[in-house]
Amino acid sequence: MTTAVAVPFRFFALHVVRTARLGPSLVRVTFAGDDLSAFFSDGLDQSLSLFLPHPGQSAPAVPVELGDGWWQGWRELPDDVRAVMRSYTLRALRANTHGRTTEIDIDFVLHGVEPGALTPAGPASLWASRADAGDRVLLLGPAIADNRAIRFRPPTGTDLVIIWADETAVPAASAILEQLPADTRAQVWLEAGHAGDIQDLATGADAEITWLVRGAGTGTRAGTGVPTALDAIRDAQLPSAERPYAWIAGESSAVKELRRHLVRERGIDRRAVTFVGYWRRGLSEEQLREQSE
Questions:
Q1: Which sign, positive or negative, has the C-alpha torsion 160, 253, 288, 188?
Q2: Which residues partner with 101 through β-bridges?
Q3: pLDDT at 261
Q4: What are residue 169's phi and psi, to 5 degrees?
Q5: What are residue 126's phi and psi, to 5 degrees?
Q6: Helix, strand or coil for residue 126?
Q7: How far is CA 76 from the centre of its chain?
């Protein structure tokens, strides 16, 4: 007798179905593919790894065998051949009447693609800005709905949800807000690079949402690297709560400052603060990955 063991994550071969520009620096890319029938996720802040082709490639270059040794095989490919890997969060999924996923959405923040940009676009921004129907990608994602790459997990009895997200984490925060129960109180701060990137977010929760737009009196405090979001949250009068829970995600140094404030100054139990550094100022994802190895 043999026992089948479900694998939490697997590779999915996908293609672009359509794209939609959401703002000056935001684009939503919708993916589909037969493999998605095995894609399952409870949503929220589901993390994904996306593999993109280099310019001139018709598909991302990855090892032929995607078994346990795929990582080493991928790293051994030449730099100009090896697929670009970037981390994203799931914005939304759609399923058929049988509960099988048919499409997923991923929102991309575009940097450096505008004419005259001081900093050139990275490979993911460049790809997303040019994405077209039929473009092929590879996704490492969940085959089990409740998996360890979902970090938003408020404890039982939570009576206030606190959220902060910079633009890289806004897609995850948006998905969280959409799924909060109607009787949930939430205090939310979201950052945007441009006023045109502000979105109307759907939620049934009792949520107060504040957008902080850099360059409009909010955003990064000049010369410090510490976001004025910290000042906004420090100055805020939070609703009274016995069991608050906080989810904060975005640039690593900002996340650390906000967590320190919530735990030390607000007195929130550190076990009730989920904090995720999606990126680090001045470092590419490749550099971050090298530091962690």
A1: positive
A2: 95
A3: 95
A4: -105, 0
A5: -65, -45
A6: helix
A7: 27
Q: Are 86 and 285 in contact (CB under 8 A)?
A: yes
**256: how many CB neighbours lie within 10 A of its CB?**
14
State the burial class of residue 90 (Cβ atoms within 10 Å of its Cβ: 0-12, 13-18, 19+). buried
d(CA 254, CA 248) in angstroms, rounded, equals 9
Instruction: List own/partner pairs for 76-84 with CB under 8 A and 24 or more apart.
Output: 80/54, 81/54, 83/51, 83/52, 83/53, 83/54, 83/138, 84/51, 84/52, 84/53, 84/54, 84/60, 84/123, 84/124, 84/127
Question: Cβ neighbours of residue 84 under 8 Å, at least 6 residues apart?
Answer: 51, 52, 53, 54, 60, 123, 124, 127
Question: Residue 160: CB partners within 8 Å, gap ≥ 6?
Answer: 185, 186, 187, 238, 239, 241, 243, 244, 245
DSSP three-state, residue 73: helix
What is the pairing mode between strands 160-165 and 185-192? parallel
DSSP 95-108: E-TTS-EEEEEEEE
Q: Report the pLDDT value the prediction gives residue 70, as an integer from 0 to 100.
A: 86
Going by pLDDT thresholds of 50, 70 and 90, the confidence category of residue 117 is: low
Phi, psi of 144, rounded to the nearest 5 degrees:
-130, 130
Q: What pLDDT, in 10s, does the model give residues 188-206? A: 999 998 899 999 999 999 9
Contact in structure between 213 and 195 (CB atoms under 8 Å): yes
